[in-house]
What does this fold into?
Amino acid sequence: MSVAGTQSGWDSFATVAQTKRALEARQVSAEELARHYLARAEILNPTLNAFITLDPERTLAEARAADARRARGEDGEAAPLLGVPVAHKDIYLIEGWRTTCGSRMLANFVAPYTASVVESMTRAGMVTLGKLNMDEFAMGSSNETSYFGPVRNPFDLNRVPGGSSGGSAAAVAAGLAPATTGTDTGGSIRQPAMFCNLTGLKPTYGICSRYGIIAFASSLDQAGPFARTAEDCALLLNAMAGHDPRDATSLERPREDYTRRLEEPLAGLRIGLPREFFGEGVDSGVLAAVEGALEVYRALGATTVEISLPNVKYSVPAYYVVAPAEASSNLSRFDGVRYGHRAAEYDDLLDMYKRTRAEGFGAEVKRRILIGTYVLSHGYYDAYYLQAGKLRRLIAEDFKRAYAECDVVMGPTAPETAFAFGAKSDDPVKMYLNDIFTICANLTGQPALSHPCGVDAQGQAVGLQIIGNYLDEARMLAIAHRFQQATDWHMRRPALEPMRASMAGGAA
Amino acid sequence: MSLSSNDIERIAHLARIAVTPSDVHDVEAKLTGIFRLIEEMRAVDTQGVAPMTHGLDMTLALRPDAVTEPDRREALLANAPASEAGHFLVPKVIE
It folds into this structure.
């Protein structure tokens, strides 16, 4: 097959598994694929704003190196994803690439080393397409806090793609990459996966190394993949997971093949439905799609049981203590001395710090630093951070009790589908409540994924969240895979061509 | 709970963030809203509950106390806003 730019016969919406097979069968080369997606990004990115940085020369050099590895016969078990393109959220350091974290603070920062997850994906043979837009320092649920402007949802350009990994979701949804990486601190993979009709996984805390990923809330941050299918997420997790001595919280355990259970039947699976996830505040279109998905699961042999997670209602308040507290500490490194923005004018060192940070951070990041500073300030530690830590345990115990009755927990990923730009940006609390179902898995450290399960009355994608017990990723991915074999919601494609025409006609 | 302008100025100083007088009221209003949300968890009885930071209750890994980092002075100084003679440059702090 000859692939040249977007005139080629390559399907931009091919899955990772399909891309891998085409590369292995020599139907396409890594360089042809890289050229294809770069050409597509050149056309669509000015509208979508999914990428912050593209560096075609570097990408093509990596692609040619992948082709050379295949020519030398290095394409076996050691490099299972050889030549498959991937784009990374701009929170992952990659040596020599500008890495901004969506912030003015790091607008000119060039990473001096590479994140462990990127290193291991490169070892697996993946080719880096570019760096993806995100909410500033991963703080946001709509990608509206990015210094580099918002990302548009490929399914409706007037709606947000979700956040904070909005660029990661939009890129796969628009066929700008077959797979991307994200990070999830409170829902930042799962909620954009829902908004952009993708499968997105937040693994168990400690599965993927945090080394080289710019820290937001260190006890919650976790790396994970975005792709069209659960099968793809399993292939990607194989390349992302692994013990790393450079991350003190990285789990030391044998390597696991996350694809090994994909063909397991669902018969006998017990699905727990927390009544707290199906109550008021959830949009009726979202509920209807989720109920429809549960019918599919029952038809596939699963049973459902109502459960209760009484302390989950404290997830959002506890999160808005833990995350800002840890962020205020992590972000203290941005002082205008060693890297990043420095104010042009100042009186003395203290004034330089204050002005640098006032100019370098956006409003949401500053709010969270202030909250964190307050809850950690003298005399408040027990009332806030310690209390939030205790609630984390109560929430984890809720789940532990639930797993006596069920194997996994299911519910909507978010209470409503993709919303319009500006709908929540003036009211932080309203924005925070969009993460009401995703945050609990970060507080407990459990794995959770979102997969497409239908649309609401406006045609916007609905995601089903599967929360599983610690280290149960392989089974959860198998569950989603069986669902995707029985349904085709995950194969929906955005109608980008007519939208592009209307955009060119001057729409906002 | 509600925060005063004085609270905002005190926290902003601790956080080393300049907040202009025109911003204080907006910051105060938004933070007060957020703290109203946070207050919901303060009333929960958690007596006797041990705080949790990691779901698998792992202990932090130890490593040998050995030098592993190579000398990368040039590469690391390349991102500095100001440097001189191999050092980060800051405003004068000692008279």
